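Researcher: Let's do a round of design. I'm pasting the structure tokens now; please hold your answer until I've finished.
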């Protein structure tokens, strides 16, 4: 059986553990929880994602991972707005 030396143990323990980045997810959720909501272009600008990625996040991850229900509203002459509750 291989032995773990003190040097190897110190190297493993000294490595910082990186938490997954939630910056873009938090930005999207913040925009969706705002009173006026957000449009697809708003969310694209905030995250740098393409439109299909934003729609996928709204349809999948928002519900499954975050337990939020997206609400879609469309007024005449305006872009569709999304909110989360």
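Researcher: That's everything. Go ahead.
Model: Designed sequence:
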């Amino acid at each position: 059986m291989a032995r773990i030396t003190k040097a190897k143990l110190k190297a493993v323990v000294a490595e910082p553990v990186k938490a997954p980045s939630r910056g873009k997810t938090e930005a999207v959720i913040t925009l969706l929880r705002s009173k006026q909501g957000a449009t697809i272009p708003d969310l694209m600008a905030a995250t740098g994602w393409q439109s299909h990625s934003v729609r996928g996040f709204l349809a999948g991850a928002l519900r499954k991972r975050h337990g939020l229900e997206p609400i879609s509203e469309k007024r005449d002459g305006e872009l569709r707005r999304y909110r989360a509750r």
